From TrEMBL:
The keyword Cell membrane does not apply. It comes from the Bacteria. The gene is upp. The keyword Amino-acid biosynthesis does not apply. 5-phospho-alpha-D-ribose 1-diphosphate binds at R80, R105, D132, P133, M134, L135, A136, T137, G138, N139, S140, D201. GO terms for cellular component: cytoplasm. This is Uracil phosphoribosyltransferase. Coiled coil: none annotated. It comes from Histidinibacterium aquaticum.
């Protein structure tokens, strides 16, 4: 991907995102919508994967059919909300290796604190898609990408549902080589670090916690 930021403005994505934003949308619907949107976002983030051809035989005749080259991919979920996007992306890329980075945001400093990191081996040979629905300050995302790079990855993309301009800027400064795909860039971050208008706390809405 050449663009640093891609906003997927497809009507289905935008419609589903609107439903997710609504405060009365149930946990059940929120989860289902997130899974559906993650299919559409995964479609976009994998659009330019290198292709090759594979010799196959159809019931009628042999052909050289298109196939993804390499197929070595890894998904890294930034816990815990990342798991909501992860499930949908795995529906489309079931052979991907999966890693997890656990970071929580210190509510006072808004800085990320790491509590878990388990990444697949061989990341240097893989396209890594890091997933986290909310790119807010960008601090957690940038820290997660630091860890993924320390593990050897050089080809990384970042997939989120919603971004704040501040988070996009932070990622651009920290990791200009990591393209971002999102459904929308909202207006600003409030003083608690929430994206406005946003959709609230994605983890709470997805898991029904508060
Ligand atoms: N994380 C969320 O879940 N929501 C926000 O608005 C910002 C960060």
């Amino acid at each position: 991907m050449t663009e640093h930021l891609t906003v997927v403005d497809h009507p289905l994505v935008q419609h589903k995102l609107t439903l997710m934003r609504e405060k009365d949308t149930s946990t059940n619907s929120f989860r289902r919508l997130l899974r559906e949107i993650s299919h559409l976002l995964a479609y976009e983030i994998t659009r330019e994967l290198p292709m090759t051809t594979k010799h196959i035989e159809t019931p009628l005749e042999p052909m050289d059919a298109p196939a993804i080259e390499g197929k070595k991919m890894a998904l890294v979920s930034i816990l815990r909300a990342g798991n909501g996007l992860l499930d949908g992306v795995l529906d489309l890329i079931p052979a991907a290796r999966v890693g997890f980075v656990g970071l929580y945001r210190d509510e006072e400093t808004l800085q990320p604190v790491q509590y878990y990191c388990k990444l697949p081996s061989g990341l240097e040979d893989r396209l890594v898609i890091a997933v986290d629905p909310m790119l807010a300050t960008g601090n957690s995302s940038a820290a997660a990408i630091d860890l993924i790079k320390q593990a050897g990855a050089t080809n990384i993309r970042f997939l989120c549902l919603l971004a704040a301009p501040e988070g996009v800027q932070r990622m651009k400064e920290a990791h200009p080589d990591v393209p971002i795909v999102t459904a929308a860039v909202d207006n600003y971050l409030d003083d608690r670090g929430y994206i406005v208008p946003g959709l609230g706390d994605a983890g709470d809405r997805m898991f029904g916690t508060k």
